[in-house]
Amino acid sequence: MKPDTKLRRKFFGFLIALLILTFFIPNVMSGALKDSITKTTSTILCEFYSAFMSIATGIALLVFIIAGIKWTGSENDPGARKSAKDAMIHALIGLIIVIIAYYVVKQAGLSMLCLST
To answer: Residues 32-49, buried b or exposed e (16+ Cβ, 10 A)?
Structure first.
């Protein structure tokens, strides 16, 4: 088995465990334990969501800055200028998608993802 396959299995196993904790276990349990598990999973989802948004925004901005430097240094090379321009456009589109995704999730009313605070 390739190392890549093992990593995928671990990742999908983690996702399945998270889904089980989020949807199935709280429905079977009652009382304080149910509230504790629900709060724990919502905190985990909140942290993942926040980390993903931060990383995606940081990468888009970094690509945009590097492409701007590349464009400035391209001088008379039209191929390098076009490549840098395309990278800037793609980074901008990615940043817009991240921002729209944030507001879509926020408007969906998913308090589970800590967006109401």
So the answer is: eeeeeebeebbeebbeeb
Predicted pLDDT of residue 116? 47
Radius of gyration, alpha carbons of the chain:
21
Secondary structure of 29-50 as H, E, C letters = CCCHHHHHHHHHHHHHHHHHHH
Instruction: Determine the Cα–Cα distance for residues 89 and 22; give it in Å rounded to an integer.
Output: 38
Cα–Cα distance measured from residue 89 to residue 85, given in angstroms and rounded to the nearest whole number:
6
Successive 10-residue mean pLDDT values, the chain, 117 residues: 68 70 55 58 73 85 89 87 90 87 72 51
Location of structure tokens 């948004």: 53
Determine the Cα–Cα distance for residues 35 and 37; give it in Å rounded to an integer: 6
Q: Is 114 helix (H, G, I), strand (E, B) or coil?
A: coil
Using CB atoms within 10 Å of the CB of residue 80, give its burial: 0 to 12 exposed, 13 to 18 middle, 19+ buried: middle
Q: Give the integer Cα–Cα distance in Å for 81 and 64.
A: 13
